[in-house]
Amino acid sequence: MRLSRYFLPVLKENPAEAQIVSHRLMLRAGMIKQQAAGIYSWLPLGFKVLKRIEQIVHEEQIRAGHIPLLMPTLQSADLWRESGRYDAYGPEMLRFKDRHDREMLYGPTNEEMITDIFRAHVSSYKELPLTLYHVQWKFRDEVRPRFGVMRGREFYMKDGYSFDLTKEDALHAYNRHMVSYLRTYERMGLTAIPMRADSGPIGGDNTHEFLVLAQTGESEVFYDAKVPELKLGDREVDYDDRAAVAAICEEFTTLYARTDETHDEAVFNQIPEERRCVGRGIEVGQIFYFGTKYSEAMGATVSTPDGTRVPVEMGSHGIGVSRLLGALIEANHDDKGIIWPEGVTPFHCGIVNLKQGDAATDLACEGLYKALVAKGLEPLYDDREERAGAKFATMDLIGLPWRITVGPRGLANGVVELTSRRTGESEELSAEIAVARITEIYAGK
Ligand code: 5CA
Where exactly are the transmembrane stretches of this chain (predicted)? Predict the structure, then answer.
């Protein structure tokens, strides 16, 4: 993409309404525009990152054997009356009537709808296990939408629903989700800690939240200092191997890590004092096992091998896709702007032309641009007639992990400059080697 032809409405001033850094930087970098309280347009740069996050979520869900579909945002009230949640949900649910006076709602979550799909099409244990998921907009009429996309009213969520014959199978589905989530967050360059939590309106008593440590997080968290050091790394995971999946979950959930909802001071105090950490976290996902709460109420049963019928065992599993943008920025920024991890960056690198209009410099930039595109990469070429300082400031603000700077002086010596946004370190090298370096960095990402 050439910046002169892109739509990147960056703001020079700090927007007064933004209280936390991720909200401020998303507005300043031209990623989002507020349309009403807690409701945003996703401008091209924000939309690009949102789609990259969504893509990683899909890849890891499909790897775990889960199947994507798409359910609507609007739902009928009748479905929610069947589970008893139409009255129980409260004012967070946006309710309205259509022209025929039928009661409708904008879905805050989809347990009822997926159970309806299941009961219409599945009747035998032979069709299990089954996990269906989608990535779709949700609406919750939060009392206090705030912090930009972090606590929105309209937000983008991955929600997955597992169906199994037995509790044991359902707990394997729960574990499979936990491991797939750990992989998902790690690929984005985030450390998200599974913490035992409270289930709220979804129900059930087996639930973990995934929290990214950040000063600005809404939840207070208590954890053993060793927990954030745990990593999946390059481990191959066989999602059908129950024991292996359970062992990973055990590894990540044995040490103390809880939110204020489930915190137990006495247990916490058994950790050696120097390892006791109290901090704040952003909840970027939650998994629930709730058994037959919905299947029983809505008549979703399956036949068993001995010919009887039982309500299907269920769980639901969510990732806050739009909230992740905020969490990623809270965890990756400095005073100049965003620093995208390579796994989610909107463009792979920036190209800054220090002397736009100079024939040799323009030609070198075009050559670099084409060479990167030929490698399957997406560079953002700042080809505007602007001062170098302004170009650097824009690149720093929008946070591309790598920048190639091209100027007449370097070109005279046959070099361009490759700069890391994270460390600020620069290196002079030939354009060919710069392209090879960037290609290598993104290989497999
Ligand atoms: N049905 C279940 C799981 S599929 C469910 O709705 N879970 S949830 O309520 O925990 O939401 C899943 C994730 O969505 C949360 O972990 C959080 O990351 C994100 N989320 C929830 N509310 C908001 C909100 N108001 N704004 C942005 N993200 C949100």
Answer: none
27 CA distance to ligand 1 centroid (A)? 22
Residue 162 above 70 pLDDT?
Answer: yes
CA distances from 302 to 80, 189, 290 (A): 21, 41, 17
In the chain, domain spans: 3-337, 347-442
Q: What is the fold, at CATH topology level, of the domain defined by 347-442?
A: Rossmann fold (3.40.50)
Nearest to 231 by CA among 192, 265, 274, 202: 192
pLDDT for residue 445 is more than 80: no
Question: Could you give the CA distance from residue 237 to residue 26 in angstroms, rounded to a whole number?
Answer: 35
Ligand 1, CB within 6 Å, residue ranges: 109, 140, 142, 151-152, 155, 157, 159, 202, 283-286, 316-318, 320, 322-323
Separation of 209 CA from ligand 1 center, angstroms? 10
**For residue 285, which atom of ligand 1 is closest to its CA?**
16
Whose alpha carbon is nearest atom 11 of ligand 1?
Answer: 318
Residue-level pLDDT at 354: 97
285: CA distance to ligand 1 center in Å?
7
Nearest to 416 by CA among 376, 377, 364: 364
Q: Is the per-residue pLDDT at 368 higher than 80?
A: yes
pLDDT (mean) for 97-118: 98
- Alpha carbon 274 to chain centroid distance? 32
For 177-186, what is each residue's pLDDT tens digit?
999 999 999 9
The identity of residue 34, as a single letter, is Q
Q: Please give the pLDDT value at position 197.
A: 86
Which is the closest atom of ligand 1 to the Cα of 142? Answer: 25
**Ligand 1 geometric centre to CA of 321 (Å):** 9
Relative to beta strand 257-259, strand 219-224 is antiparallel
Q: Which two tokens stand for residue 122?
A: 């599945």
pLDDT tens, 214-227?
989 999 999 999 99
Fold designation for 3-337: BirA Bifunctional Protein; domain 2 (3.30.930)
Residue 249 reports pLDDT greater than 80:
yes
Phi-psi region of 22 (alpha: psi -120 to 50; beta: other; left: phi over 0): alpha
Distance 118 CA to ligand 1 centre (A): 22
Residue among 364, 367, 377 at smallest CA distance from 439: 377
Q: Which among 57, 94, 180, 286 is the best mutation to test ligand 1's pocket, defined by most ligand atoms within 8 Å of the CB?
A: 286
Angle in degrees, CA 288, 292, 296, rounded to 5: 140
Distance 73 CA to ligand 1 centre (A): 15
